[in-house]
Amino acid sequence: MARHRREETQFRLLYVCTGNICRSPFAEILTRHLLVGRLGGRGAAAFDVASAGVQAVVGSGMHASTREELAPWGLHRAAADRFVARGLQPDMIEDAHLVLGANTRHRAVVVDRQPAALATSFSLREFARLAGEVDPAQLPTEPVSRAHALVEQVRTRRGVSPPSLPEADRIPDPMGGPPQAHHEAAVLIREAVTRIVDMIAPPGLARAGA
């Protein structure tokens, strides 16, 4: 019941990858930054954005190469400094309104650990792709209500609109690869996160306290 009472005023988003030091923290930090830019500090505070790893390097900071991919937004220092990797726990999944994995394997782990999350867990690129099919005019104006409605709209499209290629909904793991691998993963994440934020908080939406 507590979660249902929160739904009208808060939206909890959880990103999941393997080690929680590359893909999911990049998505977490960038999402939070973009929401503040669109909604201001007060408006963005209604969105609880977090991340975790299915085989997390618990207690570690971000991988240096992925961290550098945050530099265009000036987030590679203070924001990245505050990040600490953590392992995925069932209560994190239960508390989230939306769980986005780096690929379908992460979603499978999420559902295995918390079967009730079947309807609210996706791969990041899958969710962004399906969100692009939603008519923005069908969504409420208020951002939190808009986010909840978007999840429901996307859920109804899953299975109806498959990806053009099997790998289209994946974000390759850059761990162990050169800096270019981290850059390529960051580009895919940035594209997906930007599309989702554009749907939740379209440009020009009134800022609720900068």
TrEMBL record:
This is protein-tyrosine-phosphatase. Its EC number is 3.1.3.48. InterPro entries: LMW_PTPase (IPR050438), Ptyr_pPase (IPR023485), Ptyr_pPase_sf (IPR036196). It is an enzyme of class 3 (hydrolase). Residues 11-199 form the Phosphotyrosine protein phosphatase I domain. Signal peptide: none annotated. GO terms for molecular function: protein tyrosine phosphatase activity. The lineage of its organism: Bacteria, Bacillati, Actinomycetota, Actinomycetes, Pseudonocardiales. Transmembrane segments: none annotated. It comes from Pseudonocardia kunmingensis.
